[in-house]
Every structure is written in C-alpha cells, then in structure tokens.
Specification:
246 residues, alpha+beta, Arc Repressor Mutant, subunit A, Endonuclease, Chain A, 2 domains, seven-stranded mixed sheet, three-stranded antiparallel sheet, 9 helices, elongated
Length: 246
C-alpha cells in the first residue's frame, strides 16, 4: 500500500505510523500502542491528540482506561474536504489583503533604482523583463551574445516578442553588417555606426528601464529603473539613430 499519499494530505510521518498501527490493532490502550509504534510516550499522546482533532481517531473509556481506535476510514475524505474548505477560506482572506500587499511591494520597488545581476542567467532574467514590460526595445553598443549563450531561449524570446508585437531598433557597428542580421529576425530594424563608436557594453532600453550588459565570460548586467534616466538614454539613442546608416 502506498502510504505516501497520507503525508501528502497533511499528516506527518509519525502521525501516519500511529494511524496505520492503530488501524491494524483495532481498539487499544495507549500503553499497548506505545509498545507497538516504539515512540516516546509523550510523543504518542501528542500524536493521538492531533489525530483526534483531525477527526481520524476516537476513543472510548473502558474501566477508566482510554481505548483508542481509528474511525471509519472514509473519514479521510471528509478530512480532505475540510482542508479544501479551509483553503478556500484562506484564499478569500488573501484576496482581501492582496491590494495592500501589492501596494507595499510597489512602494518597496520604487525605492530600488538599480539591480545588479551576475552570471549567464542574468541576461535571460532581463530578457523576460522585456517581455513583461511589453514596450518597444532599443539596443545599441557591443554585439549581443544571447543567441550564443541561450540558443533555444533566444528563439523563444523572439517568438514571444512577436506574439506581443514588440519591435526592436538596434544600432550596431559596421563590422556586424556582414552578418546580415537584418534578415534573421522579424520586426527588427537595424542601423550601423562606424566601428569607432563600439562600446564594451550592450545597452537595452525598454519602458522606464535600462539594462547595461557586459558580455564577459560571466556576464554582468545592471538594470536601472527610472523614467528620467530611461528618457535620457532614449534621447541619446534617437540621436545616434539619426546618425547611423541603414
């Protein structure tokens, strides 16, 4: 018999042990049960008390001695239904305080102007943020390596981007032109600046956020959230875009 399911409905391992042993023994005294389960006396009494509270065990007094026994086993289903009712109540309570919790989170986030991410997954984290933000993306600087690091995710990202109808404008250096990246992706517009404009970092602008990514062996990304800074970066991008060539 697979007893693991009993722990999945909320019983502890010791509660399962006592429940099953008592089920096999039938009506029995605590003393006999303690010998059977080989647990400390106090622990057994505590477990019995919890099982009684859960409606799974009951007792009768015979000659001043309590005899414990498992109630009808279908009571397990009633116990699960009771848990479901409690969860529904908890859900309603959580729904009531969600607006307040969301406001606290919003206020907390507003105080965080910059976050630093390290490691290869840093770029993936920021790419997901781009999708969530749902704003047109502006990119310039060093050649990106998202495709090289996450080839499968790279295609997933652009597929999701197209589903959300998000366009990208990219400014590359002339040396990238020969790769013909403009033929690789849809809804992406690319222009080129002379190679002397190349920078060691890749800059993404989306919504009120700016991500500055250094493509080292372990990428480092700084995510800045600020409407003013994002506006300044976008103005700079617009200037470079006007100077860049198709």
């Amino acid at each position: 018999m697979n007893t693991e399911v009993l722990t999945k409905i909320g019983l502890t391992n010791n509660e399962v042990k006592v429940y099953l042993d008592l089920l096999g023994m039938g009506s029995t005294s605590a003393g006999d049960l303690i010998k059977k389960v080989e647990l400390h006396r106090t622990a057994v009494y505590d477990i019995l008390e919890r099982l009684i509270e859960k409606g799974l065990v009951t007792y009768v007094i015979i000659g001043r001695i309590k005899h414990f026994e498992v109630v009808e086993t279908r009571q397990l289903l009633d116990y699960i239904e009771h848990q479901k009712d409690e969860l529904d109540d908890h859900k309603k309570e959580i729904e009531k305080i969600l607006p307040e919790l969301s406001m606290k989170r919003k206020l907390s986030k507003e105080s965080q102007e910059a976050t630093i991410f390290k490691g290869k997954k840093a770029v993936k984290t920021i790419a997901e943020d781009v999708l969530r933000t749902g704003k047109e993306m502006y990119v310039y600087g060093a050649e990106g390596k998202l495709k090289q690091i996450f080839p499968i995710y790279y295609h997933h990202f652009h597929r999701k981007r197209l589903e959300k109808k998000l366009n990208i404008k990219i400014i590359y250096c002339e040396k990238i032109r020969k790769q013909e990246r403009h033929n690789e992706l849809k809804n992406v517009e690319i222009r080129y600046l002379p190679d002397e404009f190349e920078t060691p970092a890749n800059t993404w602008i989306f919504g009120d956020k700016i991500a500055i990514i250094v493509w080292s062996e372990q990428p480092i990304a700084t995510l800045i959230r600020s409407k003013e800074v994002a506006k300044a970066y976008h103005t700079n991008f617009t200037l470079l875009w006007s100077l860049a060539k198709k």
